[in-house]
Structure formats: structure tokens, C-alpha cells
Amino acid sequence: MTTGLIRLLATTSAVLAVLVVATFLMVQLAPGDAAQRIGGIDATPEQLDQIRRDFRLDQPMAARFVAYVGGLMQGDLGISYATREPVARIIADRLGNTLWLAVTSVAIMAFVAVPLGLIVGGLTWGDRNRGLDIGFVAGTSIAASLPGLLVATLLAYVFAVWLRWLPVAGATQWTSVILPACAIALRPMSELARMIRVETLNVLSQDYVRTARAKRMTPVRLYTVHILPNVLTAALTLTGLVFAHLIGGAVVIENIFAWPGLGTALVQAVMNRDFPVIQGIVLMLGLVIILVNATVDAALIAIDPRVARK
Amino acid sequence: MKHNVLAGAVTAVGCILGIPAFAQGSVTTVLAADWDTLDPHLTKSTHGFQMALALYDRVVALDADGTIVPYLATSWEARPDGVTLQIGEGATCADGTPVDAAIVAASMARYADPATNAPYRGRTFGTGAATVTHDDAAQTVTIALETPNSDLMLSLAMPWSSVVCPAGLAAPEGMQAEPQGSGPFTLTESRRGDTYVMKRRDDRGWGPSLGELTGSPPETLTVRVSANTTTTANLFVTGEANVVSITGKDIERLAAEPSVDRQDITLFGSDGLMFAHMPGRVTNEPLVRRALSHAVDREGFNRAFAFGYGTVLDTLTTPSMQCYDASVGANTPGYDLARAEELLIEAGFARNSDGQWERDGAPLTIRVIGYGSQNAGPEFLMESWRQFGIDASLVMGEFGSWFETLQAMTDWDASIFPYNSSIPSPSLFVAQITGAPKPAGPNYQGEENPRYAEAARAALAAGPEDRCALWAAAEQILLDEADTLPLVARNVATFTRGVSVQMISGTVYEPNALRLAN
Q1: pLDDT of residue B372
Q2: Does B114 touch chain A (CB under 8 A)?
Q3: For range B339-346, the mean pLDDT
Q4: Under DSSP, is residue B200 helix (H, G, I), strand (E, B) or coil?
Q5: What is the pTM of this model?
Q6: Which of A50, A127, A305, B54 is the most interior residue, by most CB within 10 Å?
């Protein structure tokens, strides 16, 4: 297990190093005059020179890379071209909202998909309830194929504009997270529910389940003690991957619901060509994804040491 | 009965979930993007301007008719090369410091200092140096300009000329997020990218002379942020905002809402057809530019570019600006394919056997560049010219890449250019089409029209009586020589519910004039 964890640490460090270099080059290789972008349409040549000095744009690329890495070591992600704010502060202001949205999405996904998959698996095992089986597969297929943009628009229209049950945008109250989280969760929830159902069918076919049934074990005990733990290993893997996906995938949804997270900041930065902010957010999202994946891998190694040997 | 039960249930759920209701005496508006800085001298965005208007005072303001009216200055003596302002009594900064001539002068000096790097300094003080002095005894502030600027007073009424209090001047970096002004509101809650709550100052006994305003000023001004127009419209429909400015298709939806007031404001400056004037480009030739202009149906363009909500004008100056004169556009090329044909023949072109225009065996090739938020406008131009027999192509990108291609001055012939500004004066065009080409100078079209440049210099140096006539003469030169073709002036619709609003520009309102219906 120790070897597996060391290997995981080495892999994670290498990916992180590549991410740092890639995000640096992303800014440096962007076409056009960065000083002009910062100064805007009316900037004078003197103002442009000042901007070049302020943002170290007059220094060689190697010097800028050393300064960039040195800054990263101290938590300094640079200064926003558009607002002159430290990028770290922009991210700090918004990271909590994005993580809260992602965690809520995963919670909704897990609390709906796991019981749904278990129940449908139990009810359709042994070719029973064919209608339910077909309906479940069709419903989850449709839900999984709907674009997030469409889901978000429909949810906003139905639950905020028409029924007025929930806020339409922003993060002004605790209920604000519900609609964007549901919009993000719908697709992975459908996929997870289908996977749980298949896993449930597999487990129900095992000899030890048949033995448990023969011993007249109650359904509640059968599902909680024997089936759920076996299903959860696969669910945990997928949930970890989905969480990483949610962090990045929330960009579009955040904009539709005006959710003040990294997604809206990223879109605004792209519109402004505010490369330090783009660089910082991409780095932060990459870091979160790397850490989540590493945590899931470590958890799997701890649960099942055979994973490390593979 | 069933419906009543359903309605009751819906209401109950809404109440349990806590759908916001407006607090008594509050106004909620929406910004289309987050502000960049709360330092009024450094902000470059209309969103920053809107915040500055609520948090800072200016020496003068604009009333609903666009007339310059007293604010911190009770009177003034303006000249093309400067102004002397008489500062009134009674105003105080949010921290209690009285605002006097010394404070106004210190703020103006900081704004005028090139080291401040204020992006709109040139619009206020012109291209030369500015000297700011004050007289404590007389409570006057004098601004002397090295280069005359007839827009000085107008620009002093704009948010970028706001007066910063001493606490801000002592620690300017802090103003990025913590305003230091004497404005009608103070910032009490700030959640970046989401919501800003401002409270009206209890001690507010001064303000601009905006005429008779009915209703009561709001105690709270809440500003939400939503980049998505449909979401902004939804905020208004659900009652989460009561003042929104929007463009595009959502206008129809909000217009159908009950108990809604609507104001349509034309942006300052039209979107026009900019031609590359660089030597070697075919659009360097006036005959070709005029022919291309005649080949565009601007009514059709309006539908493609602005969903039909724009206004087709013959001038770059729009009716919402000072010095607007419709007669200036008398010679602006209209949609006339026969005339376009004559002009191309006069320029030495002829149609080949395929009906395509060519000269000396080379096809007439036009490369159009555009960006996403211009909707189908760039495609419309390309198709119009293709159908006329021109080898037209289009490169679309987002704004940043379009901007950089435009500045590169190498690989484009025509583009829709937003001749827009936050200041309602024709001077805004000067910065965009005179002087040396990019990157050395500010000229986006690549070569200066010396007649226009000379006329614009005269207008900038003119007194208030002559300036509009001189601006009209300058614009006449641009249009007569087909330097550009005014296409469409974009309109922004502002919807309000229970609030009266005075708009300064298409998307920016005067916070001092907000009034709640009693």
C-alpha cells in the first residue's frame, strides 16, 4: 500500500508541474499586446509603457517564469489586468461558492441516485417489472443527454419564473444553491443511478445474497448490510470523478444562475482577456481536480490494496 | 377550488423557501458584469461608473435634458482652456470630513496627474497638461488646460471625474474595493460578483439640481450582478429587481409585464462600418468605400445586428448626444445597387463572365472581421457584398481577438466598429480615427483624414457657442468622403416597476434621481 501511495504522490506532483508550466505558457503565448489589452482603447503610448513595467511585460520570458513560480510558492497568482486586484483574492472570494455548489450537487446526486438505483435494481431483478425497467432506462437516458444549458434554463423558468418557489439567480439566500445544483447534478445523477442499478443486479445474483435470502434475512438488512457496501465502491469512484467534472462543468451553469463562483469569474475574465485571472482559475480548478482524484485513488488503495498493485 | 389550493400551496412553499420581497424604500438594480474598481478615476467599465455615481459626488451633473447643472460647484466660469468652479458649502465625506475647495482641487490634481494613469484623463483635460489650483478664501477651484478641450465641463459631469475624499487620496490602493467619497450612498455590504448593498446617507442635504423629482428617495440601493440578459429579465419578472436595462429579444417579454414603465435610450454613438484606410488596401479608395456603402441595406442590417431594435441613422452622432444634427448625414450613402455599380466602374472595376467584380484581372476582395456579440451583422455585410459580386470573406472571433486583428492593421478591410462612448459628445470619434495608426497612435482605421483632424481640433478648441457647428462640419467631412458608414444606433430599454429613473446613458442611471412611487 505504501508503494502505491508513493507512486500516486509522484504522479500527482508531475501532473501539477505540467499544469503550472501550461498555465504560464497560456498567458505568455497569447497573441497580441497585453499592455494594450490592459490599457484599453484610449491608452496613450506613455501609459502603455508604464503598464509594461507594472506587469513585468518588458522582462524576458525566463525571468517572468521564475517570478511566476516564486509567486506561486508564496500564494501570489499575479494581478488582474482588468481590476488590478490580486488574483488570489479574486479566487478566494469565489472558490467557496464554487465548492459549495459542487458539494451540494454531489450530495443531491448521491442522495437521489443511490436509493433510486438500489430500488429500481431490486424491483427489476429477475426480469420483473419490465415496464419500470424500460421507463427507468429511457428516463435516465434522456436526462443524461440533455445539455446543461437547457436543463438550467428549464429549471429557472419552471421553479423560479413560473412557480416562484426558488430564487432565479445569485447567492443571496440559502435556497439559491438548489436550482444550479440540480441543473449540474441531473446528468451525473442519471448516469450514477444506472450504474448503481446494474451493480445492484450483479450483487443480487451473487451466491451470498441467495444464501442470505434463504436465511430469511429482512430486505432492509439485506440491502444495508450486503448490497449497499458492495455497490458503494463503484459509486465512490464515479462520484470522485464526477466531482472533478462538476468543478469545471459548473462554468456554464454558474453564468445562467449568476452564481458568484469561479465559473462566472472565468467567463468575465475570458471576455476581458484578463489572462492572469484565467491562468489563476485554470490552475486552481486543475489543482482541485488533481487533489480530488488523488484523494479518491488514495481512498481506493486504502479500501482495496489490490488497486495499488494494478 | 383546485386552483386556489394550488395557488395557496405555491405561495406557502415560496414563503417557506424565503423568496425575497422588497424591503420598504429599496431599489434593486442589475449590473451586466462586476465592476473593475471602485476608484472612480481608474474604473474603465460602465459598471464601475454606475457604482461611482452612487458613492461619489461630482462638481457638476447632467439633468434629464442633458444640461450641465450645479452639484458640488454652485456656479462656474468655463473657457475652452479651463474653468473656475465655485464650490458650495455643506457637503461632507462619508467619514464626516467637510468637502471644500482644497479637497476638490486635490482630487482633481490626482485625476489630472499622468502618474495616476486615469484612463479617461484625456476626455476631461485634453491631450496636454492640466494645472489645478484653489483659493481657500474664495472657495474656488481653477483648472487650466494646456490644450483646449471644449468637452471639459461635460466630462466633469461624468463619473470618472468624481471627487475623492482625503482618506482615498492618502491610501488610493484601498479604493479598489472600499470607496472614499461623499456620494448619496455608502457601501454597507459587498459580495463580489453577486450583490452590493448601499444605504442612503442620513445627513444628505446636498445634491445636483435635477429639477422637480416626485416620490421619495430609496433608503437602500441594492445592486445585483448578472451577465446573462435572460437571467436579468427573469430577476425583473420575479420581482427580485425593480430596475433593469436590457437589449435584444427579452425586451418583448418585459414589455408585456404588468405595471411596468419603460425608457428607450439610444447609446452615445452609432455602430458604423469602419474601413481600413491603410495604403495598399482596396478600401483606401474613396470610390470603393462609397460603392461598398451603397451595397448595404441598413434596414436589413438592423434586423441581423440588433434584432430590429436599433435605429438606422445617417450620422455617427446619435440623438442622445450633444450637437446631434440630422442634416449632417444628407449625403450618407443609402441602399442603391445601381449607384454602387456606377462607382465601381468609375474606380476601374468591371464584372467578369461570372458577374464578379475585378480590375486588371484581380477580383475585388473584401475581408470582414467581426465578433460574437455583433450577432449576424458581419455575416449580413459579407452576404450583401457577395450577392453584389464581390469576393467577400469573414473572420469571426470573440471581442479580444477581433480587437487585436483590428489593431494589427494588416489583414482586414471592413468591420462593424462601435463608435460608442460614455460621454455624449462627438469628440469620442476623434480618439478612434485620428492620429497615427496603431500601435503608435490611436487611429483604428489606419490613416488619418487630415481635413477631419483639422476640423476636430477646431471643434475641441471652440467655445460653447461655436462647438456644435464645428462638430457638425467635422462629421460632414467624414461622411461625405465615405470614411465610414453609420449603420445602426443601438437602443437599450430600461424597465422599472414602482421607481422613477433618470438615465445618464443607455445603461447608466443617476442615483441621485431615483425616486420610489409613494
Answers
A1: 86
A2: yes
A3: 97
A4: strand
A5: 0.85
A6: B54
| CA distances (Å), origin B19, targets A89, A161, B23, B50 | 30, 11, 12, 27
Give the whole-angstrom CA distance, residue A308 versus residue A303.
Answer: 10
Q: Which three cell numbers stand for residue B125?
A: 483635460
Distance CA B130, CA B250 (A): 45
Residue A254 confidence (pLDDT): 92
Mean model confidence pLDDT for chain B: 91
Report the C-alpha gap between A263 and A282 in whole angstroms.
10
Average pLDDT over residues B339-360: 97
Interface test with B, best of A42, A84, A173, A267 (most B CBs within 10 A): A42
Rounded Cα gap, residues B165 and B179, in angstroms? 9
DSSP string of B340-399, one letter each residue: HHHHHHHTT-EE-TTS-EEETTEE-EEEEEEEGGGTTHHHHHHHHHHHTT-EEEEEEE-H
- Say how far apart CA A108 and CA A111 lie, in whole Å: 5
- Nearest Cα of chain B lies from the Cα of A93 at a distance, in angstroms, of 7
Query: What is the identity of the amino acid at B425?
Result: S
Enumerate the β-bridge partners of residue A273. none
Angle formed by the axes of helices A87-124 and A130-145, nearest 10°: 160
Euclidean distance between CA atoms B75 and B55, whole angstroms: 23
Question: Amino acid identity of A223?
Answer: Y
Interface predicted TM-score (ipTM): 0.82
CB B80 within 8 A of CB B11: no
Q: How far is A44 from chain B (nearest CA, A)?
A: 8
Cell of B351: 464584372
Interfacial B residues in 431-460 facing A (CB < 8 Å): 431-432, 438-442
DSSP per-residue string spanning A72-113: HHTT---B-TTT--BHHHHHHHHHHHHHHHHHHHHHHHHHHH
Strands B243-246 and B391-397: unpaired
What's the rounded Cα separation, in Å, for the pair B119 and B85?
23
User: Mean of the pLDDT values across residues A199-219?
Assistant: 87
In this structure, what C-alpha cell is assigned to residue A9?
504522490
Nearest to B27 by CA among B184, B158, B255, B211: B184
Cα A6 to chain centroid distance, Å, stands at 25
Q: Find, among B488, B493, B492, the residue nearest to B299 by Cα.
A: B488
Nearest to B346 by CA among B385, B270, B417, B288: B288
Given a cut of 50, whether residue B16 has pLDDT beyond it is: no
| Chain A contact set for B237 (CB, 8 A) | 161
| Residue B191 near chain A (CB below 8 Å) | yes
